[in-house]
Amino acid sequence: MGSKTISLFLELKDKVQLAKKKGSNILLYTFAGSGCTHYLKELTRVDKELTYINSSDQKLGKYNLLDLPFNEAIVYIRQVNIRQKYLLVVSSGFEFHSSEIKELADHFYFTFPLPAGSLTDIKDMSTRFGGKSDVNTLELIMKLSGGIPKLAKYLIVHEGKVDENDVTFQTLLKSISDSITGYDPSELKRLSLVDNNGNFVSELLVKHLSKILDIKINFDLSFEEKGILSREKLTALEAKIIKKMLDNGGQISKEEVSDIKWGVGKYDQFSDQAINKQMRRLSQKLSRFTIVTIPKVGFEIQ
Fold first, then answer.
1. Are residues 109 and 124 in the same domain?
2. Are 95 and 187 within 8 A, CB to CB?
3. I need a surface site. Which of 30, 159, 217, 246 has the fewest CB within 10 A?
4. What one-character DSSP code corresponds to residue 200?
């Protein structure tokens, strides 16, 4: 393990040990490709009192590391008795700000961010995976990946080269994008994904993902763009459209707008003009982004 990886592991280990002594729960928040599973399995290797759970058919132990899809983890939490405690992993901004987490907030003694790694960690990964060890290649991988472990591993295997048409690469970027959408700027910073100016550390994220990540909708339908609160407020309908676009990588079809506005299956009953008017009004409320029309298809946030 690299130096940052070791220090993170030791900090997490100490928090789990303290939580066990106090009989308390931990909320660990992170993102896709963070290497979280590796950390949790290593914890169970050094502490046999921990139970690592990554499938819905496993039995709860005394202290449980819940590394599951969010809905499955919530089912487990509802089953725990007063003597059973847990560490819950949430791997996306939307999960972290979900109503379920708000309901559980008082049950967590610690909230722990598991961030991206450092150049030292990249060097360590390259050694383990048989990659190049020259300084220029490692620094390039750090610049491109921003220390995101799974993205760094891809680049190490491909010697720092990116094939934009590689399905594996596209899928990886999408999973990272989906997971960090919904985190606010301060949370992204604690995850080491953005710098002090709010810019993504990873050049690949800057190139491919930054245009869709910095819109946050608040409970009262106010919203933020790039961390700045807008003077406008969304309608409930507009909020649903924006959330759908964020879930779809910034895009939405005309049929999907129709489904949200008028109900599923009613697209043919309304004109494209009515849909376009709805999206123009929504675009006018945005100040740092705009919604452009994709002819005959739908709309995209840019």
1. no
2. no
3. 159
4. B
- Nearest by Cα to 183 from 115, 131, 124, 234: 115
Q: Are 83 and 98 contacting, i.e. CB atoms less than 8 angstroms apart? A: no
| 159: CB partners within 8 A, 6+ apart | 131, 132, 137
Cβ–Cβ under 8 Å, residues 22 and 53: no
Domain interval for residue 253: 216-301
The tens digit of pLDDT for each residue in 42-52 reads 999 999 999 99
Last residue of a domain, one of 193, 213, 233: 213
pLDDT tens per residue across span 262-289: 888 777 777 788 899 999 999 999 887 8
- The domain boundary, picked from 87, 113, 139, lies at 113
pLDDT tens, position by position, 5-27: 788 889 999 999 999 999 999 99
Residues 257 and 273: their CA atoms lie apart, in Å, by 12
The sign one gets for the Cα dihedral 70, 180, 302, 228 is positive
For the chain, the domain total comes to 3
Give the pair of three-digit tokens for residue 59. Answer: 């039995």
